[in-house]
Input
Amino acid sequence: MALQMQTQTGAFSAYVDVDLTAEKISDIKVKAGYSHPAELTFTQHVPQHTMPIPPGTFIRFWDDSAADQSEDAPLFEGFVAIVDPGDDANLVSVTAYDPTHRAATTHNVFNLQWNQGTVPDTPPVPNNAGVPRLVFNSKIDSDDDYAYERAHDADIKTIIETILSDQYHPLYWVNAAPGDGTNEGNDTAWEASDISAMTAKPQEKLVFESESVRSAIERVLQWYPSTRILWEPGTRKWRIRDLRAAPEVTLRLNDFGQDTSGTGTGNWQVLSRQLNRSLDGRYTAVKIYGPETLTNRTASTGNGLLAPVAGAYT
Output
């Protein structure tokens, strides 16, 4: 196994190879999961008052012995966010997060598409008429937002496409979207097949005010609760994954010769196991109530007196 790391210190600058041995880097861990930025952590054995890899540095990391990983398809891409002193005077702990974290700290969702920048010197800027407040599906024509909504009667698919298309340029400049940074590439930040079936139309007004791209998308995914965001390094696409379609993996305890990955390397062995029991969010039964039922009763006054008829009330 040969672990590889490269750094980029400025937007669109050349990547520089990192010698992990010479830089005394160890304890490398990658944590990835649904609906939160992927995280890379490692330790450098250097004086704790130094920052050999400073915050803001872009890192890509991969294992070149893996058939599906390379510098163009890394295991992790992201920006260094935290450089902390380690446990002793000669340790530094470094934490990096994927670009969706950086995007959340640099700009919010706007109501109009950002103006294109010029690579590599002129970053994109918001449209002159743009404000960090995006509105969809204003249902009442007397609502002040009715005239400012971005789209009317929009489905979830259209809302996600609009958010990622309008914010494409600033996302591209923090390595959070693919393409070439031009207007022609602003439809490349998502995978069409991920959201093609999301045709539900929210019946209430949706307002995204001073909200990050990731937060906005996660909020609209409440209409599809089995879906999650998973930003993909290499392709730099914002993938929307359905948990019900996740692949199944069989892991066997105490069998160190198994090849559950199908690569012939016998990896994915179980080294430890911890079982946590919890009743949180678990229910033995669910009772669903509908609207109240209206009933009709008939009474007769044929003889001038109010009299009950077949179960009617007197």
About this structure: Helices lie at 99-106, 156-166, 168-173, 192-195, 213-220.
